[in-house]
Amino acid sequence: MTLFDTHAHLYDERFAEDLPAVLDRAAAAGVVGILSLGIDLATSRATVRLVADRPWLRAAVGVHPNESAAAAPGDWDVIAALAADPRVVAIGETGLDRHWDRAPFPTQEEWFDRHLELARRLGKPVAIHCREAEADVARMLRTHFDRHGPIRGIMHSYCGDAAHAGMFLAMGLHVSFAGMLTYKTADDVRAVAASVPADRLLVETDAPYLAPVPMRGKRNEPAYVAHTAARLADLRGVTTDEIGLITTANADRLFGRAG
Ligand code: NI
After folding, report:
1. Which residues hold their Cβ within 5 A of ligand 1, which is an ion?
2. Cα 93 to averaged position of ligand 1 atoms, centre (Å)
3. Residue 233 pLDDT exceeds 90
4. Taking CA atoms, which of 20, 33, 156, 193 is between 20 and 30 Å from 176?
């Protein structure tokens, strides 16, 4: 089994006690790569430190939309400097969120735009959070797409509808599925996941949040990406090994070969 967890937050305090054991379990489950993402300056710095002596881990740096109002004026320049580090293979977590009201929407849009520009300038993929804001994310991506062409990036933990997924795919993005895919009520997400072209498909945990069934309710960790991959394989009528190979090849193409 070969798997790539394209979205985790390994700096989280819930991993402080046992990160080496968490990573051992991931490796034992076949996880050959993990993209760990920061959500603000402190966690972006922590993420770059965390991957430093672990070549199979990759870092992304950025400011999450829900943290964008809390960022200090100078934070962006430091994020942009960190982003140039070769261990940083993606920009984010960025995006838009209308579910929580932690940052004014115009502030979220300004920060999302900065991330899109930086990612394009550095030639690195962008990791996009989208919660109840598919139309807004599509609108902003469209502006970049019309100006610059296809966008390298990931719609992370996708839970939007098929029509928006089609727009994101048409603009060049990958679509990544998380533990929600295994939840009883997620028929709509499963329908989208069944139809995404194989060469744009990714899997992730979003650890420590939202563990897949049968781990639901526990702390999520990268090893559990295997449960999401198994469900995805079932949906698509292929083996879990095949899903692992396809999604890992896609991740390697986006981030550069792990290891
Ligand atoms: Ni996240």
Report:
1. 93
2. 6
3. yes
4. 20
